Structures are given as C-alpha cells and as structure tokens.
Amino acid sequence: MKYLINLSLLSLVAIFLAITNISSDNLSIINCDVGQGDATLVQFKNNQILIDGGPDKSVLSCLGEYMPFYDRTIELVILTHPEKDHFGGLIDVFKNYNVSKFGTTNSESGSLEYKALINEVGSKGSDSIILDNRVNLRLGKIYLDILNPSKETTFKGSNNDGVVVLLKYDKFKALFTADVENEVSDYLSTNDKVQNVNYIKVNHHGSKNGLSEKLLQATKPKIAVISVGAKNSYGHPHKEILDLLEKYNVKILRTDQIGNIEIEN
C-alpha cells in the first residue's frame, strides 16, 4: 500500500511539474516542421494562436509537443490564404481541438479539401472573422495588427491577398508574411509599424519573388525563419533570398534543416 501511495504522489508531482513548466511567462513562437508549408504556433501561458496549418495532419504532432496536454482549446486560428500547404492540416486541427475564433480573408478555393475545412469550422461553431488591414486583435498581452490585405490596394493573385500579421508583445515584434510577393513586400515597407521588428517569417518559403530588399531594410530583423520542405520541386529557399538575408546579417533558421523552431521572448 505504501508503494502505491508513493507512486501516486510521484504522479501528482510529475503532473504539477508539467503544468508549471508549460505555463511559462515567456512568449513562444514555434514554427512547426510541416514539410513544404506553413504552420506557426504562438503561445503565451495557456493561450494559443495558430497561423496556418501546413498541408496535412503533421501539424498535430507539433501542437501535441508544445501545447499543454490538458489544453484542448486554441483561442485563434488564422488562415492566411486558401492554398493547401497552408490550410490542409487545419481540417484535423478543428477535428481535434476547440477553436474559439477563425480568421481568414474573403478569398476562397473550390477544392474539396477547402470545403471540408469550412464544414469543420461551421460544425465547431467557431466565430469567424474576415481579416484585412482595418482589423486589430488582442489576446491577453499579445496584440495583432493585420497589415494585409488592404482595401486601398489592388494587388493581383491569391498570394498577394494573404493575411500579413504584425505581432506585438511588450517591446518584441514579429512579422508573419504568408506568401505575399515582392510588390506587397515593398508596400509593407512603407508602413511605420514594421520598422525594427525582431523576427520575420520569410515570405513564401523563401521564394525569390517574396521578401524584398525594401522590406528587409525597413524591418531590420534579428531572426528570419524559413518554413520549407526538405524535398521540394520549387528550389525553395532561393539563393537570392539567402544572400539577401546574409547581406543584412540576419540569422537564418530553416525547418528543413532543424525541424521545429522555437523562439522565446
């Protein structure tokens, strides 16, 4: 009996330590290794924001690793644009988690997978928000400014309609650029809000038609994360982008090289 009691006490201690370790006072940004796609988990205490979900259910492994085991709610999911390498995994996210709010653009896709996602969103009763540059959101100490799409511009293409998010937490700033292309990068560079960010998620998996030098000059990031598959037919990340980041002495972190990438502030 004493042996059993001791085991129970050890179990309680282990659970307590797990809870206290997970409920950190630091902001965490985790770029999930989902292959050729995007999925970023932002976490502060027991609040989570998921920006995109990658192409398939591999995002669930990342969420299971970094979210508290007892927490089955994600406060906000943002889909930057309806391409499968960004939304595919969200179908399983909605099946396995409660999602309080779902934000995306007016852009749609006729694919069966996208329709399956929208059906899951509806069945869970998540509040839906249309995101554009007039929207600002707050989750506890985290502030989110939506910088794109903009009602004042007419950029063409689904990539350029992608949701660009500026995250602010105390003095820390992070910019998530979806798959927007050079012309949108240049447009963003004129926005005073993006000056001197600490962290940037590089546009479109490091495509040469993504991050522009003007945006890099404006943001002056310390860290650049590239979410990219180890095997992809696009040549991502392109040498031009890697050379540009090195030119400005930005530390480059790549999911194809090191797997999940966690940044704490």
TrEMBL record:
<protein>
    <submittedName>
        <fullName>Metallo beta-lactamase superfamily lipoprotein</fullName>
    </submittedName>
</protein>
<keyword id="KW-0449">Lipoprotein</keyword>
<dbReference type="InterPro" id="IPR036866">
    <property type="entry name" value="RibonucZ/Hydroxyglut_hydro"/>
</dbReference>
<dbReference type="Pfam" id="PF00753">
    <property type="entry name" value="Lactamase_B"/>
</dbReference>
<dbReference type="InterPro" id="IPR035681">
    <property type="entry name" value="ComA-like_MBL"/>
</dbReference>
<dbReference type="InterPro" id="IPR001279">
    <property type="entry name" value="Metallo-B-lactamas"/>
</dbReference>
<feature type="domain" description="Metallo-beta-lactamase">
    <location>
        <begin position="33"/>
        <end position="229"/>
    </location>
</feature>
<dbReference type="InterPro" id="IPR052159">
    <property type="entry name" value="Competence_DNA_uptake"/>
</dbReference>
